[in-house]
Amino acid sequence: MPSKTYSEEFKRDAVALYEKSPGTSIQTIATELGVNRNTLQNWLKKYGTGARTNITTTSGPSPDSVTEAERIRQLEREVSRLREERDILRKAAKYFGGRDELVSRFRFVDDTRHDHSVKRLCEVLKLNRSSYYKWKSTAHIRKKRLLSDAILGARIKTVFTKERGCYGAKRITAELNNDSAGIPVNHKRVARIMRSLKLCGYTRKRKVTTTVPEQKKPVFPDLVGRKFTAEKPNQVYVGDITYLPIADGSNMYLATVIDCFSRRLVGFAIADHMRTGLVQDALLMAKGQRGSLEGAVFHSDHGSVYTSHTFQGACRNLGIRQSMGGVGTSADNALAESFNAALKREVLQDAKTFANQLQCRRDVFRWCTRYNTVRRHSWCKYLAPAVFEERCPVILKSAS
């Protein structure tokens, strides 16, 4: 390690600090300054005045013995000291608008050390000189960190823009760490840089339900009990219908079939109606994806399409057991409700409606396919649901 070098100003300030600190040992001062004890002793021999402090044990001259001229000189020195302090504080005022006040004070001392002594500047700003010198000596480390943050910030912006502002810090972190050529990053660092860049994943306020309908006896028993989990794929599904508002006042409707194991959207259908055929189409797509739904549970709300004889017959033909929660209790189908909310939040964002039915169908179809193959899901350890299922044997083995 190369030996450290110190300016003459630093050495004199170190000597003055020791001489003006009664009761403090050389070792203590040396430790605060980050120098060797013998080094400080050598500086004391070269620059020291020989006096530990300017306080003497003998009594000073009595007020009567001080001449008028001496009083004037004392007052002039005091006025000069106060003026210097005033000037320092005036100059420093513009530095204190930043976020980190301590760093701002360090920067001010560094910028004005040629106009005033470091000792005086630190006294006025109530800084420890050793802290200032330590800050100054680590400037190259901070510069390197700023450069690294700038490079990472550019990568974060790229992911944020690609995902249309829908990704927060954790999903962006997962995306960055998926790049084998990049250096692994922590989500806290990503969040800090996103705050500095004023990037925030899109959020939407939840609607508050103030009225709970009277509970009725369900058509089918609740086989899920709000436990939206499964030991493996193709065991438990949830589904729902959500409306998609169009600018002309009409609606499109999306029916879904979601696997509770991976949150994968196994089946979906979009139409301008919400007849039984819509949910049947979603169920048939799920059957096509899985090959068979024999023995699987399908959980839904008490919508008329799900309680219809036609849909019940379709479930029986596919070997599906139907499950339903309480009437008017959205929490009993929270997984499907959460999916619907995420879709509208990320596709519509601040818009209230889709421009037309064709645009609605295109945007929703694109989001649903990306949801399975690209969009990172927190439940899936920030993998896309389809990727999570592909790796599920490894994941299940590591969890056991």
What would you say this structure looks like, in words?
With 400 residues, this protein is an alpha/beta fold. It has three domains: 8-53 and 76-137, Arc Repressor Mutant, subunit A; 141-196; 236-399, Ribonuclease H-like superfamily/Ribonuclease H (Nucleotidyltransferase, domain 5). It has 17 helices and five strands. It has helices spanning 8-19, 26-33, 37-47, 68-93, 101-112, 118-125, 129-137, 139-162, 169-177, 187-196, 276-290, 304-307, 309-318, 334-348, 357-373, 385-390, 392-399, and strands spanning 236-245, 251-259, 265-271, 297-300, 321-324. Strands 3-2-1-4-5 form a five-stranded mixed β-sheet, sandwiched between helices. Helix 2 (26-33) packs across helix 3 (37-47), helix 8 crosses helix 9 and helix 11 (276-290) runs parallel beside helix 13 (309-318). The longest helix is centred in the N-terminal third of the chain and has 26 residues, at 68-93. The two termini are 48 Å apart. 25% of the residues are buried. Residues 53-60, 208-215 and 395-400 have low confidence and may be disordered.
